[in-house]
Amino acid sequence: MKKLKHEAELFKAALQAGIEYAEARGVVEFEPGDSASEKLLYIYRLLVHDKIIAPLPEDQVAEKTLRHRLSMWHAKNLAKITPG
Fold first, then answer.
1. Residue 32 half-sphere exposure, CB side, CA atoms within 13 Å?
2. What percent of the chain has pLDDT over 90?
3. Which has the minimum average pLDDT: 20-29, 41-50, 71-80?
């Protein structure tokens, strides 16, 4: 797994985008006390369910790989909307 440039910042933006996506769909309302790990897992499962990202094998579903996967999803979406 190759680390992305600015992956920490990408992850923060990806998590926020994922939260907005999930809440806009009306499937969840995150509480302020929900941990980033809980939100990450929920968003990952939702994106897989909606066939937006491909699922990982269950033995690879860990916070580190999910953070990377969500960051890659967000970076790809940014590339689609960013000219150049």
1. 0
2. 75
3. 71-80
Q: Residue 56: which residues within 8 A CB-CB, separation 6 or more? A: 65, 66, 69
User: What backbone torsions phi and psi does residue 26 show, to the nearest 5 degrees?
Assistant: 80, 20
Closest of 75, 64, 63, 68 to residue 17, by C-alpha: 75
- pLDDT band (50, 70, 90) for residue 68: very high
Tally the C-alpha atoms within 13 A of residue 26's C-alpha that lie toward its C-beta: 0
Q: Does domain 8-24+35-81 have CATH number 1.20.120.1930?
A: yes
